[in-house]
Give the backbone structure.
Amino acid sequence: MTRTPRTHIVGAGLIGTSLGIGLVAEGWTVSIEDRDPEAQRLARALGGGGEPAGDPELVVVATPPSVAPSVVADALERWPDAIVTDVASVKAPLLEAARATGHAERYVGSHPMAGREVSGGLGAQGDLFKARPWVICAGDAGDDAVAQVRLLPAALQCDVVEMDAAAHDAAVARVSHAPQVAASAVAAALGTLHEDDVALAGQGLRDVTRIAGSAPGMWADIARLNRTHLIATLDHIIADLDEVREADDVGEALSDLIDRGRYEVARIPGKHGGATREWTPVTVIVPDEPGQLLRLLATAAGVGVNVEDITIEHSPRQPVGLTTLHVLPSRAGELLAALERTGWDIAAS
Amino acid sequence: MTRTPRTHIVGAGLIGTSLGIGLVAEGWTVSIEDRDPEAQRLARALGGGGEPAGDPELVVVATPPSVAPSVVADALERWPDAIVTDVASVKAPLLEAARATGHAERYVGSHPMAGREVSGGLGAQGDLFKARPWVICAGDAGDDAVAQVRLLPAALQCDVVEMDAAAHDAAVARVSHAPQVAASAVAAALGTLHEDDVALAGQGLRDVTRIAGSAPGMWADIARLNRTHLIATLDHIIADLDEVREADDVGEALSDLIDRGRYEVARIPGKHGGATREWTPVTVIVPDEPGQLLRLLATAAGVGVNVEDITIEHSPRQPVGLTTLHVLPSRAGELLAALERTGWDIAAS
């Protein structure tokens, strides 16, 4: 087993503290600091690392993205023998900052992709990143430095993806940053509607705007750091919307856009990194009472049908929900038969 | 109990045939026709109605939206004593067509809002609309005509919403038509990415683009009929995207847009027509094996915690999925304790 590097974390927010807790739990020697003494005290109290004892071998910069480039540069100067990484969700500006110090051979970018539901410093936990992708951008670093940084996702049971920093930033602009902006814009357009009219919303709108409900958090920082790629993506989206808007035949233009969109959606990985499987939906009317969902899944399990995904749609003003089980097409018939046998009210299949 | 009207359905696609099956099952006298003899034969064979016997009292136009205005006008002329309704998802052009005949007092617009997962004529079933909203636009019709048409959603156990036709069209442009266009545009912007880069997609992108994966279907017709409201909504969305794009401080502009979007998202009804409840997410690592989800829900049910919603996120290249149970905040602690007691691997809460 590889000896774990003496690790120092700069920034004791949710991410830094969670990393610290996770690494300490794996037996690593971790120290953690924050310029806010209260945040630093809390992180140490939570077991996210102690006081620094000797120079670190690995430094993880976990500050807000806005200051991450300068903190990375500082860290490269401050600890001339350490490998430095960071966790910001934009990578090229960090690599630039490292290069400006002349020590980019000791800098490796990281982007652990945590679930966005989580927020708040007190919510730190060691397995925040478990089973999530962890992007590594090697930049100018050598194999040894990269290997050192890869020990982090290995210890935290993350799924490592190595990428070029610019490719990473272009990709996250399209898969994450611009979708956030678009979802917010779709939501903001509801502003002209009366309350009763908003009530016509179906599951489609709820899906499109779900991320629009999340807190602004670090989005301002991210947009500033990834401005070029974000704007290029917004340009692409605006051009497509304009094409529908300006078309002589709005129907034809929309059909064309939908066709192009469908082609791309099919490339979004679903299960196990493969292309999205074609699952068959089976929709059941489920009374909104404890245990009903369990009873539904028990019916599926009873005939050995694996439920690949579930969507629950609550009907306005009715004490029932429509629950859709997504199953392999080859098993849908069997599931339907079992549901009918056990008295379930099937809404669509 | 009210006597059910002798009903004639024009158009034997998925919607018309499903309506026919549902009404016949409720004891209604239903006839159904389609200009395609094969579709007509199939609908009758499926029990969606028989041959017309005598003049109908209620006519339901269930043709594709593109021809619905002219078929409604024809129906008003052809059966001078019948109340005529239709099921198109745009309502003002239909009311215009009815008015042009001089018989708009016998026309009532309907928009049964079926789940969009369903398609294909052979998939017809009587409870396609069950527990879904059914919009009624009275237009120039009197109370008796409206009452006659309301018998349809009553028989099919739908949730009736009465609205003005123009308000309906403006609302569906914002809650349905424009979100479809925007989701497709977000998806289309992935076109510049390499396969490996698309793999960075998380649940956020999957949610935003889910409806972009659905078949173009009637979207071209809908966009043509609701062009004015659709374009007004796209203008609103484009203006917001442009504002972020052009801003001196992209971060500030995005924060502002996110704040406006969040305010609107909070107005989208969640459960039972109320504002979205603040549920607490509890994320668990679930091995991808049959019965695991059942075991998870059994743990929740074992302590009497009702699961309000479930999201399942499959991790790229790993044989586990992250499953998030959304529960009332007051029950989250109890659920967590129960999960820990029964050995579940909790990823975030």
In short: Chain B touches chain A through 146 residues (CB under 8 Å).
